Amino acid sequence: MNDSAQVVVIGGGQAGLAAGYHLRRAGLDFTILDAQPTPGGAWSHGWNSLRLFSPARHSSLPGWPMPVHPGEGHPTAEHVVDYLTAYEKRYDLPIHRGETVTAVESTGDGLLVTSDSGQWHAGAVISATGTWWRPFLPTVPGAFAGRQLHAVDYRSPGDFADQRVVVVGGGNSGAQIAADLTGAAHVTWVTRRPPRYLPDDIDGRALFDIATRRRHALDRGEEDTAGVGGLGDIVAVPPVRAARDQGHLTPHPMFTRLDPDGPVWADGHRAHADTVIWCTGFRPALTHLAPLRLRAADGTVPTDGTRARGEPRLHLLGYGDWTGPASATLIGVGRTARDAAADISDLLGGEPHHGGAVPDQRRT
Ligand code: FAD
Asked: Which of 48, 133, 321 to mutate to test the pocket of ligand 1 (most atoms within 8 A of CB)?
């Protein structure tokens, strides 16, 4: 056993799989721990109509292109789950499912990863736990008597038939869910600032290129181009475009409080609501890294590329552009995963190992 060549990847969604692909190519010994009982990461949990904002050919992980989606339009979330399921089989990635990591600590000569069923010693750790698992809801004064849910719990318009639904959020989730509800419910779409649509022809490939250009500009010390965020917030996927063009996506400003009956705006205007759906984003799921005390005030971990600045044996993949250009997309995570694996390979050196990392003190 050579401890110096062991890597534990936390999270078995697309980012964890891309990490596995490149760790394998680097000849490193690794294991992937994933909290979910089945493959697919967050893609298994989205709403029924969720589709990619790009065609399959612009949504691939390293090594094996996503098969073309057989139906019309961009691939469904189900197609992505099928692809991720086949991908981990194809590369025979060593994934332990149903294993939630609760802590990562420094032991001096390595990192100790504690899950709900055991502990693992690792020479390096890649954290790829995503954001879906930490939905963010803003605090708004008042006491609403109706139903409130976050976008993570939204499934289909049929659940809200004929209801008065307030959808809060001017990003992709808000626009997509407001569009999805059109025709089934009476929708009031509330956004903090006027919605900003990306040009209609922008898809995942273009987003990746824009994010990459921004990263290169920042690396060269040039002015921040603001990347994708400078162009807009909402990808005009076909259902959003259709709802917008038919005049169904009329934005209202943010309300100031929620009375039992519904929202109340600063000018005293009020609306009756049965349900409020909060499409107000996510935070990185990083609780397991708390013992390392690496988090900045904004909730992220400061990184150089994917490597944590305060702990060189820890890399972060996915989450957002702060771990690399488009790292939180299917097309973008491959490059950041390759960089992380190369860096870890340099750090650990030594003889490459084959097989899974060695479980230590496993409890039953
Ligand atoms: P996840 O898919 O969330 O996977 C993380 C895995 O880690 C999960 O299996 C989770 O259970 C596990 N995990 C979490 N915590 C722990 C823990 N403590 N211990 C062990 N395991 C843990 N990207 C695109 O490229 N194209 C798109 O069209 C697109 N559309 C999107 C639409 C929506 C609504 C959202 C929210 C995102 C979209 N994205 C899109 C962005 C991104 O591709 C997805 O969010 C993707 O799921 C991120 O993959 P990931 O592997 O980083 O995280």
From this structure: 133
Atom of ligand 1 nearest to the CA of 330: 25
Q: How close is the Cα of 337 to the center of ligand 1, in Å?
A: 15
**What pTM was estimated for this model as a whole?**
0.91
Name the class of domain 2-133+283-348: alpha beta
- From CA 114, how far away is CA 170, in angstroms rounded? 38
Residues 6+ away with beta carbon under 8 Å from 142: 257, 258, 259, 260, 264
Of 3.50.50.60, 3.20.20.10, 3.10.180.10, 3.40.50.460, which CATH number belongs to 147-197+233-278? 3.50.50.60
Structure confidence by residue, pLDDT tens digits, 238-296? 899 999 999 999 999 999 999 999 999 999 999 999 999 999 999 999 999 999 999 99
Q: What is the pLDDT of residues 12-23, one digit of tens each?
A: 999 999 999 999
Q: Are 45 and 73 in contact (CB under 8 A)?
A: no
